[in-house]
TrEMBL record:
InterPro entries: Ribosomal_mS34. PANTHER family: 28S RIBOSOMAL PROTEIN S34, MITOCHONDRIAL, SMALL RIBOSOMAL SUBUNIT PROTEIN MS34. GO terms for molecular function: structural constituent of ribosome. This is 28S ribosomal protein S34, mitochondrial. GO terms for cellular component: mitochondrion. Signal peptide: none annotated. It comes from Cotesia typhae. It comes from the Eukaryota. Transmembrane segments: none annotated.
């Protein structure tokens, strides 16, 4: 009889973090761990273990007899993280995602491939201003005309999320940006779909 698996599928490849560090000397301090999830990036992505601690099983007051198998596979790991060739300035603590079976240990003879890699993602420089939406543009122009002021093309400031490690930033005064945000749907990845379409 054929087995039929139920539940959500995933693309995890590897072991849980506790399965790896629990079988290493000194819990793998100083070793490199990679996640299969980040293998698609051309830049190196890895974590370097600095400290490992086990997590106690929580006391469930509502259902004391309930046993959560996920908590048996979780641990707390303090590590240095390198994402897409850029090292985080602060140490990272991994605990809630340590149960996922997506971690792989890097052999010692292959660590140089990650440590010596100098390739990092190119930094994108955003312009400080961008065009306003069409309706807001018409309102701004009509307001300027009604007040008798000279009509200029309205622009609005660009505000970026600067939390965490980013590979983009705002251009400084007088610096030439590499990317100027525009209003619209942008360039389609499949131009052949619209080759025979005529404008209305």
């Amino acid at each position: 009889m054929r087995y039929q698996y139920l539940g959500r599928t995933h693309d995890f490849v590897g072991k849980t973090l506790w399965e790896i560090v629990g079988n290493l000397k000194n819990y793998g301090v100083g070793r490199l761990i990679i996640r299969h999830r980040f293998d698609n990036y051309p830049e190196p992505c890895y974590i370097k273990i600095l400290k490992v601690a086990a997590l106690p099983n929580p006391v469930v007051e509502i259902r004391p007899t309930y046993i959560n198998t996920l908590w048996e596979r979780t641990c707390m790991v303090l590590c240095e993280r390198v994402f897409r060739g850029k090292k985080f300035e602060r140490l990272v603590q991994i605990d809630s995602a340590s149960y996922k079976t997506d971690y792989q240990l890097v052999p010692k003879d292959e660590e140089y491939k990650y440590l010596d890699a100098t390739k990092s993602r190119e930094e994108v420089i955003f312009s400080r201003t961008m065009e306003v939406p069409p309706l807001l543009r018409e309102v701004a122009i009509r307001t300027l005309k009604a007040k008798g002021k000279p009509v200029t093309e309205p622009r609005m400031d660009v505000v970026l999320n600067e939390f965490g490690v980013k590979t983009y930033r705002l251009a400084k005064e007088g610096e030439k940006p590499t990317y100027v945000p525009t209003i619209g749907i942008g360039k389609t990845p499949s131009p052949s779909l619209y080759a025979n379409c005529k404008p209305i």
